[in-house]
Write a structure and sequence with these properties.
The protein is α/β, with parallel strands linked by helices. It is built from 18 helices and nine strands.
């Protein structure tokens, strides 16, 4: 008798067939109560990892309210992780950059990065050593999980703070940095950003010579390379250069939402060939978007500003310019602005967990179950209806269960694939 492969979402998508719990079992779909019961059982077992959570050092104080408590204004803290059954998170060392890539800007950024590294260490070493611990390896993550503690990783968003000194890569790694992106929104000294696609301005046409050296150094150290914010050309050059799998720590699917922060099919195919993983992000404007409407709304607002002589571009500066208008002109301007944003180009309904899992389905179909993971970008603008903070992580698992994903597949999506990549990166460094 031939050996039949179980009917799973991955197989169904490969065959071009719909997949549901009913298709798996040949029976009617489970009730919602049954779905939630199964989801809770699975969610309680898997090592779930959110690969992108922004932080403020102010929330890691020894004297005031901090991450050990349920903070009112954060989407993630230890209490919310515990309540939501979220086992692990990459807390992010993010520093923006100055337009000028100069030594003074590098020095300021480096100091800000060190402050965030120290905040995470303070959490795990002083504030809550019995509840959370930093993972430096994939094996650490499994050990910490088995001990019943939250698994804390550190990711570096934007290589700008290393400046022109490549030895800073090792210093960041020694402090616990286990992934780093070479740019954020704006070209860095290491790489072009996805923002070049928006304005047509490029600095390196991909990676800079220093950026190429940094990739080699990260391979040597065992630090995952994150390609979520750099440009497409930079990402493809990184795939060609890296001796280890790479990650997209918080990106979406461009076929479903045409945004420069999302990966197109060529990038997804390259990621599969590299053995990497895309950590799909629950960020509303990367999950569900309407580029044509967004462009029309932006053009209408730009025209309105020109009509009233407002030349500023930054949000704060624009608001100041509006307030500086004479009363009658300011009221007139605000009325026209409301007409544009509320009547002519109103915002679309918020993205939901279902919309988010559509991105997971797409990647599974395109490049397979082994190359997809989950991220939120919480406290950095992330969140969709049903997954607005860490307490709602179970809702993602429940939607995966509704669509017929097995416990093994959900374990891969929630963290197994990321840990596989991490282990491979460690092995490449060991060589």
């Amino acid at each position: 008798m031939p050996c039949l492969r179980p009917f799973t979402p991955a197989l169904a998508l490969a065959l071009g067939l719909p997949f549901t719990l009913a298709a798996q079992s040949g029976k009617a779909p489970r009730s919602e109560a049954a779905v939630m019961s199964a989801a809770k059982a699975i969610h309680g077992k898997v090592l779930s990892i959110d690969t992108h959570v922004d932080i403020s050092p102010a929330n890691f104080s020894e004297s005031g309210p901090n991450y050990t408590q349920k903070l009112p204004r954060t989407q993630v803290d230890l209490v919310k992780m515990e309540e939501g059954g979220l086992v692990g998170a990459f807390l992010i060392v993010y520093v923006g950059q100055t337009p000028n890539l100069d030594s003074a800007g590098f020095a300021r950024a480096n100091a800000q990065a060190i402050e965030k590294f120290e905040a995470v260490h303070r959490l795990t070493e002083k504030l809550a050593p019995t509840r959370a611990e930093i993972a430096y390896t994939a094996a650490d993550a499994r050990r910490i999980h088995a001990a019943g503690k939250r698994v804390i990783f550190i990711g570096v968003e934007n290589g700008f703070p290393i400046g022109s000194d490549i030895t800073n890569v090792q210093k960041f790694h020694e402090r616990g940095g286990r992934y780093m992106s070479l740019a954020h929104n704006g070209h860095s000294q290491l790489s072009d950003s996805n923002t070049g696609e928006r304005d047509g301005v490029w600095l390196h046409n991909g990676l800079s010579p220093l950026g190429r050296q940094v990739i080699a150094e990260m391979n040597r150290l065992g630090m995952m390379i994150d390609v979520s914010h750099p440009s497409k050309q930079s990402m493809l050059q990184t795939v060609a250069l890296s001796k280890a799998p790479i990650i997209g720590s918080h990106s979406g699917v461009r076929a479903l939402c045409n945004h420069s922060r999302n990966m197109d099919d060529e990038q997804l195919d390259a990621l599969k060939k590299n053995g990497g993983v895309i950590q799909l992000v629950a960020f509303n404007s990367y999950v569900k978007c309407n580029p044509a409407k967004d462009a029309e709304r932006a053009a209408a607002v730009d025209a309105l500003r020109k009509e009233y002589g407002i030349t500023a571009t930054g949000r704060t500066e624009v608001q100041a310019a509006i307030q500086a208008l004479p009363n009658d002109k300011r009221n007139e301007y605000l009325a026209k602005q409301e007409d544009i944003t509320a009547r002519r180009y109103p915002a679309d309904p918020a993205a939901t967990v279902k919309d988010f899992v559509d991105h997971i389905d797409y990647v599974v179909k395109r490049i397979g179950i082994d190359h997809v993971g989950i991220s939120s970008d919480f406290d950095g603008g992330g969140g969709v209806d049903g997954f607005r903070n860490a307490t709602e992580a179970l809702n993602v698992t429940a939607e995966l269960v509704r669509r017929g994903y097995t416990e093994q597949e959900i374990a891969k999506i929630w963290g197994g694939n990321l840990l596989r990549v991490m282990e491979r990166v460690e092995k490449v460094a060991g060589r």
